[in-house]
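wait is this the right file?? whatever heres the structure
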C-alpha cells in the first residue's frame, strides 16, 4: 500500500519526503518496526513514542507519523506531521486492513455496567441461528468458538483493526464488542463502522481518568455519533444525552419509562432467572432469562434492540435469549449441597454493587454476607460510596483486597471502612482475599447468601511487585468443599 493511500483519511499539516512509497506494515512499538513499515509516534502516559523514532528507522521503518519534527532522522525517511497521532494510528490501521468493520454487522456496547452480559446475550442469539460471530471484550476476544487473548476491554486501534481483519478472513458475519470510555476518549475506535450502538447505563467509574461525570458521559456519547443505529436505555438519566448525539435510527428501552419502544412489564425475579412481558409495537412477547436481576432485563432489552436492527425476527431473538446459560463472573452461582447461595460477580462500582445486592434481596431467605474490595490506582472517591451501598444492603461485610496494584492494601481498606462505619453493618477487615472468602463462607449458614464481588471472571490479582493467579470461583469452591 502506498503511504499516500494510508494517510488519505488522516488530518495532517505537512509531509516531508515522498508519499509515493510502499508501506508493508504499521506499528507504534519501535520494537516491532520492520523493513518497509511506518512508525506512528504515540505520546503515551508513561513514555513518548517520538523518542523511539530513530530506533524504528534503524529497524527498517521508511516513514514516520509524528506530532512534531524529530531530529536526526535520515532524509530518505518520509515524515508526516499531524495534530493527533492516536487518531492517525486508528485511521491508518483501518485503511491498511481495508476497513474490515464495513464487511460485518458490528454492534458496540457502552455503559458503566452490563456491557459484557449484553455482548454475550447477542452472541447466544446469533450462534443459535447459525451465524459465525466475533466478540471483543473484558472476558476475552472470540472468533466463533475460538478464544483469543485480550489485554484490555477495547484493544488499541491497530490490534483492533487486525482482529477485525482476522474475523473477516474467518467468515465472521456479525461481531459484538464492548466499547470502553477510555477507547472512545483515546481514539482507539476512530475509523470503526458500527451498525448499532447500545447504551446500558452511566454511574460513577473511571473518574481518576475522566475527572468529571460530564466528561465520562461525553466520552461514552462519542459511540453514538459513529453508529448507523442506536439502542438507548432511557430509564437512565444519561440516556437523554445519548439520544441527542445519535445520528441514526433509535430504539429506546426501559422498564419504568412508558414511552420506550421496547419495554419490560410483569416482571418476575427468582434465584434462577427472570421473566417478563416485552411490549413492542403494540404486541406483547413473553421473555425468559437464566440470569437473575433487574439489570439482566435491561441488558436483554439492549440485545433485543440490536438484533432487531440486524434484521432478526423477534421470535428468534427471544428463543436465543432463553438459550443463554449465563456469563462467567457475572452473577455466577456456585452450586453446592450446603444450602448456601454463593454468587461471584464482577461488580466494582457503587451501582454495580447495588444491582447485585438488590437481586440477592429478591430471593434471600436469611442473611446476605458480602465480600468486596476496591482496586488500587483507580478512582478513590468511589470507595466509601461502595462501602455505604454494601453496608446498607448486607447483614455482614468482609472488606478485602481487590487488585491493590501500586497502593498499600491496608490503606485501601481504611478508605473503604470510612463508608461502612456509619451504616452500622457489622464487618471484618481482612487484607488477604483468600482468607476473606474463606471467612465469609465459613460463617454462612443454610439459606444465607454470600456475594463475592469485584473480580468476577478475572483469574489473577495484581500487586505492586507481582501478579498472582487468583480466581474467586476456584477459591470459593475450595472453601465450600472444606466445610465439614
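ok assuming it is, sequence goes like this
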Amino acid at each position: 500500500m502506498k503511504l499516500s493511500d494510508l494517510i488519505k483519511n488522516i488530518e495532517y499539516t505537512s509531509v516531508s519526503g515522498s508519499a509515493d512509497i510502499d508501506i508493508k506494515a504499521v506499528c507504534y512499538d519501535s520494537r516491532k518496526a520492520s523493513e518497509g513499515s511506518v512508525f506512528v509516534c504515540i505520546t503515551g502516559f508513561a513514555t513518548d513514542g517520538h523518542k523511539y523514532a530513530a530506533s524504528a528507522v534503524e529497524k527498517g521503518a521508511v516513514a514516520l507519523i509524528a506530532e512534531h519534527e524529530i531530529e536526526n532522522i535520515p532524509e530518505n525517511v518520509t515524515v508526516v506531521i499531524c495534530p493527533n497521532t492516536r487518531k492517525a494510528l486508528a485511521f491508518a490501521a483501518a485503511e491498511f486492513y481495508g476497513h474490515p468493520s464495513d464487511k460485518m454487522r458490528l454492534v458496540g456496547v457502552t455503559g458503566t455496567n452490563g456491557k459484557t452480559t449484553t455482548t454475550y446475550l447477542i452472541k447466544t442469539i446469533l450462534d443459535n441461528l447459525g451465524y459465525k460471530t466475533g466478540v471483543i471484550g473484558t472476558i476475552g476476544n472470540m472468533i466463533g468458538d475460538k478464544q483469543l487473548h485480550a489485554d484490555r476491554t477495547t484493544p488499541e486501534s491497530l490490534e483492533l483493526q487486525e482482529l477485525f481483519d482476522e474475523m473477516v478472513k474467518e467468515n465472521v458475519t456479525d461481531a459484538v464488542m464492548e466499547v470502553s470510555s477510555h477507547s472512545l476518549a483515546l481514539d482507539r475506535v476512530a475509523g470503526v463502522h458500527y451498525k448499532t450502538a447500545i447504551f446500558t447505563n452511566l454511574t460513577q467509574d473511571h473518574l481518576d481518568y475522566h475527572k468529571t461525570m460530564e466528561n465520562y458521559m461525553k466520552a461514552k456519547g462519542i459511540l453514538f455519533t459513529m453508529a448507523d443505529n442506536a439502542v438507548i436505555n432511557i430509564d437512565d438519566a444519561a440516556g437523554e444525552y445519548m439520544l441527542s448525539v445519535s445520528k441514526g435510527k433509535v430504539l429506546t428501552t426501559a422498564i419504568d419509562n412508558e414511552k420506550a419502544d421496547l419495554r419490560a412489564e410483569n416482571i418476575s425475579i427468582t434465584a434462577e432467572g427472570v421473566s417478563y412481558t416485552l411490549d413492542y409495537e403494540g404486541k406483547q412477547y413473553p421473555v425468559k432469562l437464566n440470569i437473575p436481576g433487574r439489570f439482566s432485563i435491561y441488558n436483554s432489552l439492549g440485545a433485543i434492540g440490536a438484533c432487531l436492527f440486524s434484521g432478526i425476527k423477534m421470535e428468534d431473538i427471544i428463543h436465543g435469549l432463553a438459550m443463554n446459560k449465563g456469563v462467567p463472573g457475572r452473577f455466577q452461582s456456585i452450586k453446592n449441597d450446603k444450602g448456601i447461595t454463593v454468587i461471584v460477580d464482577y461488580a466494582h462500582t457503587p451501582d454495580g454493587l447495588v444491582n447485585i445486592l438488590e437481586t440477592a434481596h429478591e430471593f434471600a431467605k436469611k442473611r446476605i454476607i458480602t465480600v468486596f474490595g476496591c482496586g488500587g490506582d483507580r478512582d478513590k472517591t468511589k470507595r466509601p460510596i461502595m462501602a455505604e451501598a454494601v453496608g446498607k444492603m448486607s447483614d455482614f461485610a468482609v472488606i478485602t483486597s481487590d487488585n491493590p496494584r501500586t497502593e498499600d492494601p491496608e490503606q485501601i481498606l481504611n478508605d473503604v471502612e470510612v463508608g461502612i462505619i456509619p451504616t452500622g453493618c457489622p464487618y471484618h477487615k481482612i487484607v488477604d482475599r483468600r482468607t476473606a472468602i474463606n471467612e465469609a463462607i465459613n460463617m454462612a449458614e443454610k439459606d444465607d447468601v454470600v456475594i463475592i464481588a469485584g473480580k468476577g471472571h478475572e483469574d489473577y490479582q495484581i500487586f505492586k511487585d507481582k501478579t498472582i493467579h487468583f480466581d474467586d470461583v476456584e477459591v470459593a469452591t475450595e472453601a465450600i468443599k472444606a466445610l465439614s
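The first strand starts at residue 14 and ends at 16. so i think its the right one actually
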